[in-house]
Specification:
By secondary structure, the protein is mainly beta. It has one domain: Beta Barrel (OB fold (Dihydrolipoamide Acetyltransferase, E2P)). The chain is built from 2 helices and 9 strands; from the N terminus they run ββββαββαβββ. It has helices at about 60-65, 120-130; strands at about 5-15, 20, 25-40, 45-55, 75-85, 90-105, 130, 140, 155-159. The strands form 2 sheets. A 5-stranded mixed barrel has the order 1-3-4-6-5. About 15% of the residues are buried.
Length: about 160
């Protein structure tokens, strides 16, 4: 039997992403996601919020840093990673994080009270419709196969 370690989570970024580089120059981006779960208990609708740490590596880290911001809706597909260490006090510690393999963002929309020129709107739409292709280049989404764009459309970034 093969082992399976796969996670799909949706929520909102709790803070702006933090990007850093390892000593060898590999980029790492860390951010947190708050994800809500709704359920009924007796006749009441209850809400439970979970907070999850996410890390992205390499080109995905750069994309997450550039496109992510506090409050933005995000969907992450990845795997769980557990870090274990012994603190200076001799106690054992562990932390579980999600290592992102694919990240999607909800579209950003301007607030209705902001005045936005048509060229600004087109530039924003072009920027948020970019996706990363496996050859390492950004390109616009093909309009040939586009269906009606929904307000909740997600932008995908994977590496």
């Amino acid at each position: 039997m093969n082992n399976l370690n796969s996670v799909l989570i949706e929520g909102n970024m709790v803070r702006d992403p933090l990007i850093r580089s390892t000593p060898k120059g590999t980029q790492v981006c860390n951010f947190s996601i708050a994800s809500n779960r709704f359920f009924r208990q007796e006749s009441n609708l209850e809400k439970e919020t979970g907070f999850f740490e996410v890390e992205a590596w390499g080109k995905l880290a750069s994309a997450c840093s550039a496109q992510g911001r506090k409050g933005r809706g995000v969907r992450v597909v990845g795997r769980l990673k557990q870090d274990r260490w012994t603190g200076s006090d001799g106690k054992s510690h562990n932390k579980v994080a999600i290592v992102a393999e694919h990240v999607e963002y909800r579209s950003d929309f301007k607030k209705s009270d902001e005045t936005v020129s048509e060229s600004d709107s087109l530039a924003d739409a072009a920027y948020f419709n970019e996706v990363f292709d496996p050859n390492g280049e950004y390109g616009a989404v093909s309009s040939q196969n586009e269906e009606k764009v929904e307000a909740e459309e997600l932008q995908a970034v994977s590496f």
